[in-house]
């Protein structure tokens, strides 16, 4: 069913009785050309672009739960491409360009809002670093503006500019950045992939990737064995557990990242704001709630829940730039499992096992990468070659030393 103003009017007249399911709930086939393990945003985007861009339809997406129930529905919805490293900028800019036309492409409202992303700086050294990042972005044709204190104050006058420890001196603004509705993105890609013949198998857990003579032959699931010519692991924080079933040990660690939503208040925050002296980020949803988060819980875990010290740290950072947030009630918070790579940058590549492909290591950047990740991973699966925008995201960079250390913190996943 095509969504439009006319279909809305028709359904209103008909009493909303003729809506069809957004996607099917099929039984697994005996064999597929490609199986994608992981039905989050990246897995569904990969399936969609495999069908749309490469004409492949004998594809299955395995999701152990329900669509939108994993980390894709547990993030803070931020979309941006304001990166500094040459290996990252082309990829995230490709992803942002796909975001800009995604709703028309999918015929689905993902609530993309290009309200801008403002990174605050609090010292002369940090200003210089942001200037370098802005210049690197400009060299790749990516928009960015370095603002002084008065320009930032005009945008967001409610911040604490005179904070004794962290005075706000200015910021780096990317106006094309913003937010999107996280679970709607998963639903839109699921609907788009299904309409092109992809089988989305919910409540189908991958138990074992079967490998024979160095080549994949299929996946053991809780619904039986399914043959496959190619298998793509797109399992986010569960990547290492899935890869281990094929005998692979990856440079990935899983950590919990908490997100928070406050009660609804009147429109206040016009853009996404990040705290430069820590790792706090905040925006306001269309419903009025403040959506925010900070750093990882500093221990490895597969549990989608966090701990109180991380909550305290998040609120402290919020208070450092926005004291008024102390008067707002917190409604809920949750945790998502982050697949943290050793250099803080993603991996899209083949593995040493024939027919087995890898899409992981998204760290904090997974949601904003959703369309770009799917587009580039689909290119790799269909053509057995890396997309030009993802050519630096190789798995073997940890052997060769060509790491992409965006955060500049070294080979410590918990610090990226």
What is the number of helical segments per DSSP (H or I, 4+ residues)?
A: 11
Low-confidence stretches: none
* End-to-end gap: 43 Å
Based on secondary structure, the structural category is alpha/beta
Structural account:
With 416 residues, the protein is α/β, with parallel strands linked by helices. 28% of the residues lie in helices and 27% in strands. The chain is built from 11 helices and 18 strands. It has helices spanning 5-13, 41-54, 89-100, 102-106, 124-139, 149-155, 182-195, 239-244, 308-321, 370-383, 397-400; strands spanning 31-37, 59-62, 78-79, 117-121, 145-148, 170-174, 178-179, 199-201, 206-212, 215-221, 224-233, 252-264, 272-275, 280-284, 289-300, 330-341, 347-350, 356-360. Strands 1, 2, 8, 9, 10, 11, 17 and 18 form an 8-stranded mixed β-sheet that branches. An 8-stranded mixed β-sheet has the order 5-6-4-13-14-15-12-16. It has a two-stranded antiparallel ribbon with strand order 3-7. A hairpin with a 5-residue loop joins strand 17 and strand 18. Helix 2 (41-54) packs parallel to helix 7 (182-195). The mean pLDDT is 95.
Give the tags.
single chain, eight-stranded mixed sheet, 416 residues, globular, alpha/beta
Question: What's the structural blueprint in terms of helices and strands?
Answer:
Layout: H1 5-13, E1 31-37, H2 41-54, E2 59-62, E3 78-79, H3 89-100, H4 102-106, E4 117-121, H5 124-139, E5 145-148, H6 149-155, E6 170-174, E7 178-179, H7 182-195, E8 199-201, E9 206-212, E10 215-221, E11 224-233, H8 239-244, E12 252-264, E13 272-275, E14 280-284, E15 289-300, H9 308-321, E16 330-341, E17 347-350, E18 356-360, H10 370-383, H11 397-400
Parallel strand pairs: 1-2, 1-11, 2-8, 4-13, 11-18
Antiparallel strand pairs: 3-7, 4-6, 5-6, 9-10, 10-11, 12-15, 12-16, 13-14, 14-15, 17-18
